[in-house]
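#struct-pred
JK: can someone run the complex with 2-acetamido-2-deoxy-beta-D-glucopyranose? inputs below
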Amino acid sequence: MNNKQIRRRNVSAKPISANESPKVSHSNSKRRMSHSNRSCIFSLLFCFCGCILIAFVTGLFMCPFETVMKIEDIVNVQLKNAYAVNSLLSTGKKLHNIFPTPECTVEGKDKLLYAGLADGRVVCIHPSNDGEIGAGKVENITTGVIQGAVNTYDAWGHGRPFGLRLVGETLYVADAIYGLYMVDIKLKKISILVSPDAVVPNINFADDLDITTDGNFIYFSDATKNQLTHYHFEVYSGICSGRIFRYNLISKKLDIVITNLCFANGVQLSNNEHQLVVTETNRNRITWYDIETWKPLHVVNLPCK
Ligand SMILES: *[C@@H]1O[C@H](CO)[C@@H](O)[C@H](O)[C@H]1NC(C)=O
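RT: done, structure tokens with the ligand placed:
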């Protein structure tokens, strides 16, 4: 044991008996020194914390982002009847081992399921021979890559279908990489409808779509101005850059109908097709919009994400 170590022990050791008095006095002087050391450390720590606090407060006042979230008119809904808690979604059969992160699924005729996967593919899941849904062979409808297509992020290397609708033999796909396209499910032929560069600013995150029953209009969401790899910037910044587009399949005209949505996720036409229902993930909110005036008619603030 070297001298230093012994001294350090003495600092913390309490005098045990009078016999040890010389040692005690030595220890006391050491203790005084350590007191001043300690107060020095505390001052440094205090300065350090003070600096951090000043940096935070300065940052807060210099922050370029405005707080846009202001939740008003909240009505608490009882979790009863239609809102009653249930476990319907946890009792089915899980196919997640075979399919990487499907975010959209639609049901076709003859018990066929279609899903868009994380590797960019759209697949068709057949029923088993004895008719069990989801238990049969898996057929690739698309490869996940659309050669030569404009994309939102080169390095991604394949698409990311997030929204699907099936009309007859045609699948309509909202894809965060390739925009809006349709696939003939028999011929497996893809046609781009709206590519990401169809408007300025570009469509960076096509997320979901719905189509009118006359087949003339597609409404689709562009969740955020940030690309797929940076979608969380929408959360951190508090900036709501989501948009809803209307695409006319006859005239090929594209209109922006809603802007400034807080991560525009799902879109769904109401049964009478007079309203468009839009979910905003970052705002925990579902809003019914009149499709003539685009005024919000009804809002449901959800309790959590
Ligand atoms: C579907 O595509 C995946 C990924 O490219 C491939 O591994 C698989 O073999 C294909 N399935 C069929 C039935 O061709």
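RT: quick notes.
The pocket of 2-acetamido-2-deoxy-beta-D-glucopyranose is lined by residues 121, 140 (CB under 6 Å).
The first strand starts at residue 104 and ends at 107.
JK: thanks, will look after standup
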